[in-house]
Design a protein that fits this description.
heterodimer, A: alpha/beta, D-Maltodextrin-Binding Protein, domain 2, 2 domains, six-stranded mixed sheet, 26% strand, B: Rossmann fold, five-stranded mixed sheet, 17 strands, 40% helix
Chain lengths: 238, 441
């Protein structure tokens, strides 16, 4: 049988994702970032795992180099790749928020003026959000250390993802709006989802059962993996 | 920006570029594409379709019928010198609907038309989304018969087989099933639109959350969620019938699909088709049976189509129709991915003729004779040595070289060098075409 290929994100999400997939019996081979290996074959389960940069997962899946992938909703939306979203894996949960300096008089997005500059790693999501709110802001794209931008006057507000909000408050930023929640999703290539429907549905079903089991078993067993991932926002994974 | 305002170096570099999303075809690349086009065209003709052509540019209003490409879609639009808004056609169905509604009304009893044409969409150039691409397609205009839906799909399958594709599949669905189910459940338009958008994107996470947000009775939620899972062989239609409940629209969709599937079995296409009752189309003008095809190794659809009974009405001619389009570049990609059999048709024999000064008359007369017999004949223009001519001919895959020179006693000698693996066939053909010439092999 032909391998079913998975693109999994390197970084903090990897361990909980691998645990979930192993618990669900999708593959059992040893997968680790410690080696230089990027491709792992599990002939027993007919699975092949590719380790790729988190932001590249939707690309591998859209082009069909991987049949399935795991990617944060934030990455999927920002990349605007055309993939099927099959399952919310309920790990790596976080929220998209708009934040301003605590000293700012602004307490809601409506109070931001149209002259405002918004710093973000997610320009498409930010642009779309403000446009839908009818506020014409200028979006400044940065690739990290967003909290610096308002401090030095580069931006009036930031759009970022956060899990607990702690990093924000440590940097003297306050949340003024929530844009959308995010979590890791199981995604599939459009054509694979049709041509290998049964194999893919089988994977989704195993994962779904495993996730349901985790909820039922309360805080025991597999739940720990979810919690661990939740503590590590997928935001800061690059 | 005025040209003068650009930097000189920018201008120089721009002169060697093409705009994003557009491409050139070198002869060898184009040969692959043309071979596919010719095979598809031959299939269209065998099924009794007539070719037609429409202009590349149309008035923007023509190209934006309701349910078709709209103002928010990525069409190339501009104003022509008369101040009219025109656009590059983003697909062929709407221009053909315009043409048929105006000049071909009397010929649609029904009319079967085919085209192979370039279309333009201003999309982000990415996987399989070029800004100019070629579509080969047909429209069957003037019949509501379910036989036409089956013919359209069977013809599409025949074309893909004709291109040598082996590993492909066609999914068949029906707009009436999804729409009927939603109105039976009593969804408002805005709710139905959101559910359909999630289904179209195959975003099951969003679908679940939207359906949960509708606060429907559990049984109704289950019917909606089933849309994402009603795919399989013809037997899935039985389950569809249960889920359709009392919706007449959904039930008649099931009945039509049953009929289409039965006919496709008769056409010998059963092994490549699946039924997907949750299938939807991006364009809203589709009304009945719809389908799309995928090929192994290509991560996006290679063809698609369906019934559009209301489109021509917008051009003042109420006439039911169905059709499909195949993405030529996408089929090329599938062929390159190894999903295709090797091309089986061998081209005609090709020869190169080179001659010494004074023998032009004989050489060029023979070239005419050979071309008349179906040979490809290329004349050596620069009088290079025979060895160089032969080397070039071999490189270009020519079958033979004929060199005309003065032999002993100044007599004309025609020396033939044959490279083709079918050497004896080439020699026989040459002897018969140039029976009066003394050929030296």
């Amino acid at each position: 049988m032909e391998f079913l290929t998975f693109a999994l994100p390197k970084g903090r999400l990897l361990q909980p994702v691998v645990e979930l997939f192993r618990d669900a019996g999708v593959f059992t081979c040893e997968i680790s970032e410690d080696t230089r290996k990027l491709v792992f074959d599990d002939p027993d389960h007919g699975s092949r795992v590719l380790l790729v940069k988190a932001t590249d997962v939707p690309t591998y899946v859209q082009y069909g180099s991987a049949d399935l992938g795991v990617s944060g909703k934030d990455v999927i939306d920002e990349s605007r790749k055309d993939v099927c979203e099959l399952l919310d894996l309920r790990i790596g949960r976080c929220r998209f928020i708009v934040a301003v300096p605590e000293t700012s008089h602004v307490s809601s997005v409506q109070e931001l003026s149209c002259n405002s500059r918004i710093a973000t790693k997610y320009p498409w999501i930010a642009e779309n959000y403000f446009r839908s709110m009818g506020i014409q802001v200028e979006v400044v794209t940065l690739s990290g250390s967003l909290e610096l931008a308002p401090a030095v006057g580069l931006a009036d507000a930031i759009v970022d993802i956060t899990e607990t909000g702690r990093t924000l408050s440590e940097n003297c930023l306050k949340i003024i709006a929530e844009v959308q929640p995010s979590s890791a999703r199981l995604i599939a290539n459009r054509v694979s989802y049709r041509s290998r429907r049964n194999d893919i549905l089988d994977v989704a079903r195993r994962l779904e059962e495993r996730l349901a089991g985790r909820i039922e078993s309360g805080r025991g067993g597999g739940e720990c993996a979810c919690e661990a991932a939740d503590r590590q926002s997928i935001a800061s994974d690059d | 920006m005025q040209a003068g305002a650009e930097k000189w170096c920018d201008l120089v570099s721009r002169r060697k570029q093409t705009p994003s999303g557009l491409r050139d075809y070198t002869p060898s690349e184009l040969a692959i594409r043309r071979r596919l086009e010719q095979r598809i065209a031959a299939v269209f003709e065998r099924w009794g379709y007539q070719e037609l052509m429409t202009p590349t540019l149309e008035f923007a209003d023509v190209l934006s019928p309701s349910g078709g490409y709209s103002d928010t879609d990525p069409m190339y639009r501009f104003s022509d010198p008369d101040g009219q808004f025109v656009a590059l056609r983003p697909e062929m169905t709407t221009p053909i609907a315009r043409l048929v509604s105006t000049r071909l009304r009397s010929e649609v009893d029904p009319g079967r038309f085919w085209y192979i044409a370039n279309v333009f969409r201003y999309a982000d150039p990415q996987v399989g989304h070029r800004r100019e691409f070629c579509q080969a397609g047909v429209e069957i205009i003037g019949t509501r018969s379910v036989l036409a839906d089956a013919e359209s799909i069977a013809l599409c399958v025949d074309c893909l087989h004709g291109c040598g594709l082996r590993d492909f599949g066609i999914d068949i669905g029906h707009m009436g099933f999804v729409n009927g189910l939603m109105s039976d459940i009593g969804l408002e338009d805005s709710e139905a639109t959101r559910v359909k958008a999630a289904l179209l994107r195959q975003d099951l996470v969003a679908l679940k959350s939207i359906v949960a947000g509708l606060r429907l009775p559990q049984s109704e939620s289950d019917r909606l969620l089933a849309l994402a899972d009603l795919r399989g062989d013809g037997s899935i239609l039985e389950r569809g019938r249960e889920i359709a409940g009392r919706s007449r629209e959904a039930l008649s969709a099931i009945a039509e699909l049953e009929s289409v599937v039965r006919h496709l079995e008769c056409y010998g296409a059963a092994d490549v088709i699946s039924v997907d009752l949750g299938l939807l189309k991006r364009l809203d003008y589709y009304t009945g049976v719809i389908f799309q095809g995928h090929a192994r190794g290509v991560g996006y659809d290679i063809c698609g189509g369906g019934r559009y009974d209301n489109l021509l009405r917008q051009f003042g001619f109420d006439c039911p129709s169905t059709g499909f389009a195949i993405g030529i570049e996408r089929v090329m990609a599938a062929v390159e991915q190894g999903g295709a059999a090797q091309p089986d048709d061998e081209g005609p024999f090709a020869c190169v003729i080179t001659f010494e000064d004074g023998h032009a008359e004989a050489a060029l007369a023979d070239a005419r004779l050979l071309r008349a017999r179906g040979f490809v004949v290329e004349i050596e223009l620069d009088g290079r040595p025979v060895e160089a001519v032969c080397a070039r001919a071999r490189r270009n895959g020519r079958s033979c070289v004929l060199s005309y020179s003065s032999g002993s006693e100044g007599r004309l000698q025609c020396q033939v060098r044959v490279f083709s693996p079918r050497a004896s066939d080439v020699k026989d053909e040459l002897r018969s075409a140039l029976s009066l010439r003394d050929l030296v092999f």
